[in-house]
Amino acid sequence: MKKNKIHQRKDRFSVKSLAVIGSLTTMAVSPIAFGDTVLVADTYVDIQKGLTKNFGKKTALLVVAGKSNGFLKFDLEKSTPNPAMVAKATLKVFVSGIKKNSVGKLQVKTVNLDQTALKSIQESTVNGATNLNLDPVALSEISGINTSSVNQWVEFDVTDAVKAAIEKGTPDTQIAFALIGTDTLNVKLESKESKAAGNAADLNIVYATTGVAGTAGAVGATGATGATGATGATGATGPAGAQGSIGLTGAIGATGPQGLQGLLGPTGPIGLTGLTGATGAQGLQGLLGPTGPIGLTGLTGATGPQGLQGLIGPEGPIGPQGIQGLIGPIGLTGLTGATGPQGLQGLIGPEGPIGPQGIQGLIGPEGPIGPQGIQGLIGPTGPVGQVAGTVVKTITQNTPLTGQLINATCDAGQTLVGGGVNVPNIANVLPLSSVPVLDSITGLPIGWQGSFGLLDTSVVGTLVDTTVNLLTSVVSLLGIDVLTGITGSSLNSGALTGTVAGILPGVALPTLDANNNPVQYTVYAVCATAAQ
Questions:
Q1: Which end of the chain is more exposed for a tag (fewer CB within 10 A), N or C?
Q2: Burial state string for 448-477 with b = 16 or more CB within 10 A and e = fewer than 16
Q3: What integer pLDDT is reported at residue 478 of this predicted model?
Q4: Element (H, E) at 435
Q5: Class of residue 173 by CB neighbours under 10 A (exposed 0-12, middle 13-18, buried 19+)
Q6: Residue scoring higher pLDDT (278 or 135)
Q7: Is the pTM of this model over 0.90?
């Protein structure tokens, strides 16, 4: 297994520039080519729970020891020369964050799938249930990943895996790697969806090729040494002789150290706009709205029949003035009595003392409704109330499954006038159904039935309002007759409609809330009793 190193973040230079900077003499002996691979997929997969969730659109790859692994796939087709001999291959990833007190090794393993299977794995579909057939032994690893590694490039030597993929009769066109954490490692790596341009994973490949040596020319025979003659006059400069034959090619020298990273290439043109992403999961339920205005005053009851006229009693003495009574019904006109004689004018008496305070006047008309107050904090869900002349039947379950029906039934002689479900304040829990229960013989409503569901936020769905039914009908009670009927639309049913692929079927609903308090799932029926 190869050990690797961590580099401080710096400007990235294109490896293509190295060909211009390098020695032309060296290039003539041992040409070097550089391949620009394309990162076609980067994501991470959950290997502990929620295996079917996909994280291809995330801006970071989350690698957590024993919980989630990173996945990278590169296209080699356009960057591989023919023939090709790999001199060096380096995989680079950028560390953008790490959990406090998290340490361990970051390993790279090869994904061992044939090209058909590898091409079928897409960034938008790969998940924890996908068979990646990883090598049991790490191809490369880096020790000591901790908080000091943040904002640094990490490099892995993956030469062996790239050579095996390319240096064969039919070179592979794609190659993939998995990123694995050990010990307590919990690290974030930049993905190609990140807003930090240029920090996505990169696979650099250096190719080495050797040219074919030319035929060596023959060596001419050495002539005999002649006698030294007299120095003659300097003659005219003769024409240049023919160039000698090329000598034998020397042995290939040892591979030199890797050159410096080249300068950053020019920015490529802006690519076409990508397809619109899938619609996000339904958001959490909004806060409770303000209390509505006070409803209209109910109808005035019918006036009872007038009682019989009593006998006229003898006239009694005039008593003290009593408190003013309520205005009674107008009685029958009594007989006219005989006119008595005129009495003498009495003396004007002294002014009497001030009488007691009169009775309190009638309550004045109700004033206009004041402005809306500031929205108060949402209080805890209270118990189900009841309307006068009704009783509320509740059935509570502590550990139901998604879709399990819960029934609240009225007693014999009672009539259903409303009902609903109480949804606990738990994220992603919502009502699936809220409907009346009908008697199988009479067809009349005798209770209320409801169920609850758990939303899988990784699946796209469309949800609608499932507000609990309220008593909205007008119920008539005549004398001592029992409740004889229900009018209007008080028994509307509420249920989840539309696409419901996001509901996890048959799983246990949460039993504790965010504060570890027990959770209750309640269905209630509002039942009217006979008038007494």
A1: C
A2: bbbbbbbbbbebebebeebebbebeeebee
A3: 27
A4: strand 429-438
A5: middle
A6: 135
A7: no
